[in-house]
Amino acid sequence: MNTLITLSILCFTLALCHGFCFRERPKLEFKDGKFVIPNTCVDKYDGTEHLVGSAWNTGECMKCECTKGGMSCCSRYGGIAKVEGCEAVRDPETCTYKFFKNNDPSKPCF
Fold first, then answer.
1. Which of 6, 40, 68, 97 could disulfide-link to 88, CB 3.0 to 4.6 Å?
2. What is the pLDDT of residues 54-76, one digit of tens each?
3. Number of domains, the chain
4. DSSP character for 69?
5. Is 55 helix (H, G, I), strand (E, B) or coil?
6. Cβ(83)–Cβ(97) under 8 Å?
7. Quick one: 87 and 66 in the same domain?
8. What is the dihedral of CA 11, 16, 19, 24, to 10 degrees?
């Protein structure tokens, strides 16, 4: 019973820390009278094609991977961004949060 509780807490913690993920199934193609799985995935953010087995980072700070099972992407920001007295601002260049004072957004909290 303790193991089950510990595993549940661990899974919940990992889910909170990682942000969010999604998965898209491959779009089957019809060739020569048969359905075939494509050997590429199309990035839903910029429309680029990526070969099965490849991984890439998007301009929207997502880490994506293309497999025969489809495309999966996870946020590179991750976690909960809350600091008392500060506002979290996403930095798209570094895919991190930067924190600024609520009463003076020009001053960083750290």
1. 97
2. 999 998 889 999 999 999 999 88
3. 2
4. T
5. strand
6. no
7. no
8. 30
Residue 64 exposed, middle or buried by CB count within 10 Å (0-12, 13-18, 19+) = buried
| DSSP-derived pairing of the beta strands 96-101 and 86-91 | antiparallel
Give the long-range contacts of residues 71-75, CB within 8 A, separation 24 or more: 71/23, 71/24, 71/26, 71/41, 71/42, 71/43, 71/44, 72/21, 72/22, 72/23, 72/24, 73/21, 73/22, 73/23, 74/18, 74/19, 74/20, 74/21, 75/18, 75/19, 75/20, 75/21
What the block records as the tokens of 53 is 């087995």
Q: What is the dihedral of CA 9, 11, 15, 18, to 10 degrees?
A: 110
Query: Residues 94, 62: one domain?
Result: no
Q: How far apart are CA 80 and CA 85, in angstroms?
A: 15
Section 34-55 average pLDDT: 93
List the structure tokens of 36: 């075939």
| Range(s) of the domain holding residue 93 | 79-110
